[in-house]
Amino acid sequence: MKLWGGRFSKQAAKLLDEFNASLPFDKELYLEDIEGSIAHSQMLASQGIITQDEADKIKKGLLEIKKEIEEGKFKWDISDEDIHMAIEKRLIELIGDTGKKLHTARSRNDQVALDFRKWVLKRNLEFAKKIKELIKVFVEIAKEHTSTLLPGMTHLQHAQPISFGYHMMAYASMFKRDYERFIESYNRNNINPLGCAALAGTPHKIDRFKTTEALGFKAPSINCLDTVSDRDFALEILFNISMLMMHASRLSEEMIIWSTSEFGFITLSDEYSTGSSIMPQKKNPDVPELIRGKTGRAYGNLMALLTVMKGLPLAYNKDTQEDKEGVFDSVKNGLISIEILKETLKTMSVNKENMLKATKKGHLTATDLADYLVNKGIPFREAHHITGRAVALAESKGVDLSELSIEELKKIDERIGDDLDLSLENSMKSRKSYGATAPERVKEQIEYFEKFLKESE
């Protein structure tokens, strides 16, 4: 008979057990369930609802169950439905009727809300830690490449010369926002659902502030009706992971392009590359490709839970059992994606010569010529036209704009003087506005991120 089966005269059908059960996946929450139950039982004792001796027996039994689970000795039975009932049933087997008192002043509604919330909060901090480790790699690469020329692009077309270090700092900025989102989600959702019971609280004289302190929450939730059906914390981590994976996918796309024979900007290490089953010469960028692919999976998990939640009336509904598998999946794939992305970046080689060669295509200093003419008092639209003629001349000669001589440029417009410097290095170094690509500005960005990493320890 089910622990809840007093009202029923027939056993549940086996098909219902299979359809209804969440135990195959929510056993992931065993540690949070045991921690919550220990805190709950100790609070019940402090309030005189059960005796301290009973609370101690419950704690001892729960710790024994924890050991059984972690040693692989716990017997899982799908008829128990979920991790909460499985642990409670085993507790009663171990300590007898005292185990039946554990569920006093508690519902599976606040129990699952507690367990899942605690699990998600821990994962927020795990992501934050891994993102900081990734940012540190961007910083280390940037330090080595503050003057390494790279064609900066818009529309995937060569635009202006920048440094590879500057490009890495752009990704550091992206991932810092991800870090902040996970930390903010942790802080916002660090509230205690325990004690809300089914939906309306409990007539027992419990102390929710005691369990809040024992479980490390910031405060108890303010409204029980909202709390038992709230899955915002799960949606937030799914959104945060989706954003994180989107940023990782953008970088992965560039790594895939950069590692091609056509670009040759980077070489991925053998440790994080794969071969072809038929073409012996192949070296495939499977790590960034898989990250790019897993990003769609993260989006799908977010949309699935948003869809589950959109039509649910207050309070708890069984639909929310569908909240966990997508979160578990996104967390698992998100964490390993960021970890392997970090290692792939750490072990890749940067091919400076190929980057420099690429900057000599596409007339990257065209804007510099236009800016030079504007500084001579020439209206921008006229300067734009003159620069266009210079680019046309370079095209006709089969050279880059930066390779035209001053004499050739003077023939286009006599206002061009000997002080004009259209070299790629000068172009990159001249962009000194705050947040720009000049080496001293990139060094400022590196210092900013080093300070951030230290202060967030």
Explain what this protein looks like in three dimensions:
60% of the residues lie in helices and 5% in strands. It is mainly α. A hairpin with a 2-residue loop joins β1 (149-154) and β2. It starts with 13 loop residues before the first helix and ends with a helix.
| H/E element order | HHHHHHEEHEHEHHEHHEHHHHHH
The biggest beta sheet reads:
2 strands, antiparallel
Side by side, the strands of the main sheet go 1-2
Q: On the 0-100 scale, what is the average pLDDT?
A: 95
- Cα end-to-end separation: 51 Å
In percent, how much strand structure appears in the residues?
under 5%
Q: How many helices in DSSP terms?
A: 18
Helix content: 55-70%
**Rg:** 30 Å
**Structural shape:** elongated
Q: Which class best fits the helix and strand makeup?
A: mainly alpha
- Give start-end ranges of low-pLDDT stretches: none
Count of distinct strands: 6
